[in-house]
């Protein structure tokens, strides 16, 4: 297993795990149980997505595409240009 990404939040982690699993990648989230200790532990680096070595490169490509996603023309509200609303 390789740790390939550190999500900013548990919500982002769960979203990415769902995306990776939908592509047939067996993703594992480490640090989920440490989230209750936020305040006593530093927030940075608690969460980590890990995938099997053979699937690591493909998973990195999928996450890079996710992070680089832009709204389709006309999908973002005029008051928030460039913001992707889900």
TrEMBL record:
Positions of the DUF2007 domain: 1-65
Name of the protein: DUF2007 domain-containing protein
Organism annotation: Pseudomonas qingdaonensis
């Amino acid at each position: 297993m390789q740790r390939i990404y550190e999500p900013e939040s548990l919500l982002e982690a769960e979203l990415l795990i769902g995306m990776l699993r939908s592509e047939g990648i067996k993703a594992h989230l480490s640090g989920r149980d440490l989230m209750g200790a936020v305040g006593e532990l530093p927030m940075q680096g608690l969460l980590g997505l890990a995938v099997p070595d053979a699937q690591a490169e493909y998973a990195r490509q999928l996450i890079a595409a996710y992070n680089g996603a832009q709204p389709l023309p006309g999908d973002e509200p005029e008051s928030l240009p460039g913001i992707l609303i889900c």
